[in-house]
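Tutorial handout. Part one gives the primary structure; part two gives the three-dimensional structure as tokens.
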Amino acid sequence: ADTNLNIGEVEAVIIGNMEHFEGVFFTEMWSADAAGFFLKHGMKITTGGTTGSSLAQAGYYHVASGLFDTVMTIGWEKQSEGETTAGLIFQADPLWERATMSGAIGSFAGSATAYMHKYGITEEQAAKVAVKNRRNAINNPHAHLKMDLTVEQVLNSKMLAYPIKMLDMCPTSDGACAMIFASEQKAKKICTDPAWVIAAVTRHDQPFGGDLEMVMNLRTLRSATEEAYRIAGIRDPLRDFDVAELYEPCTFAELSWYEATAFCGPGEGGKLMDSGSTQMDGELPVNPSGGVLSTNCIGATAMIRVAEAAIQVMGKGGKRQVPDVKRALATGFGGSWWSDVMILSKTP
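Part two.
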């Protein structure tokens, strides 16, 4: 509807979800007709939490290859009909990991503890992330959790696994996201003010979840952003970007990944949060959509980061719009601790 396209004009469709989280396999078999790629070029992608950003990057690369002018990407999840933690546990290494693997909560609890011990990060600083993002979500009509919280409410919420409390973690929810990627000539025809992709980078890592340093410091995100910044000519991320949509499955992750994206130095994520720089009226608003802490339909979650970045660049954010956005950063996290990074711009 935003592009005045009909499904007949879409040349390829790329879909994805985390099927073993839902327990429904071969989703491409039953979704082909509804997704509009019956007897068309189609592709199915499943990469954990990065499924959505993998879809977005695949859509971009399909168009950038010159083989297609118009590609639609669709990510979704219906977690109400599945068991995500069971899916995570049963993919863990049976010898070294499964006995201690308790899903995302356990992984982040261990790494958050190490992060606090190493840098002096506090639970209060992490709680401020939950307050910020869920207040931002109030202005997003598509967000699932809209809460006007206080730091005290976050700190007093149910303990899941120290130091992770209920309100420190993302929800599980049902939802979907779709995007259109088009060649420059096509984009100018179907959209008056498109968002332009100027960098798309992915990085993988070894899959051992017991490597706590890997999880919280997320070397894949650090490496991916360095490459994306080189491509886009970004030298000072905190000032060169106007908005960022970070994939933050828990509050401590957002603090740490401020560091991985070079918004601040090592161990300074908490101080950056305290400074107010990542608030809606700060130097670099982070997650004006409410982030993953407010909406987490896994197959779509990382694509929502890219879509929200595009919405900001296009000036279509409504009450969550950051003024005068020219460049936006979007990240995805998941799979074997890998990271996707995309940079979107007002101009090609």
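Part three, for discussion. The domain at 1-348 is CATH 3.40.47.10 (Peroxisomal Thiolase; Chain A, domain 1). The CA atoms of residues 203 and 220 lie 5 Å apart.
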